[in-house]
Design brief:
The protein is of the alpha+beta class. It has two helices and six strands. The radius of gyration is 14 Å and the shape is elongated.
């Protein structure tokens, strides 16, 4: 991780690892709940936390993704 090479303690998490729970609509999942305990624990340990975007998991553990809606310029 680039931050480590700069001497910055950091951790990267998937959406599921970060506590993001979504519905089960793959590629169009909507966030139902966020339980950021792991993020808080890592921050309390002094780490910079990076969470991957557009992913999470359902309440039964299925990995989901969502695509961003792109704004027209």
């Amino acid at each position: 991780m680039a931050l480590h090479s700069l001497g910055v303690p950091a951790a990267s998490l998937t959406g599921a690892q970060a506590g993001i729970v979504t519905d089960g609509v793959h590629t169009k999942a909507k966030i139902q709940n966020i339980t950021p305990k792991k993020i808080h624990d890592l921050l309390n340990d002094g780490l910079v936390v990076i969470v991957a975007g557009f992913q999470g998991q359902t309440s039964d553990g299925q990995v989901t993704t969502s695509r961003p809606r792109l704004a027209r310029i």
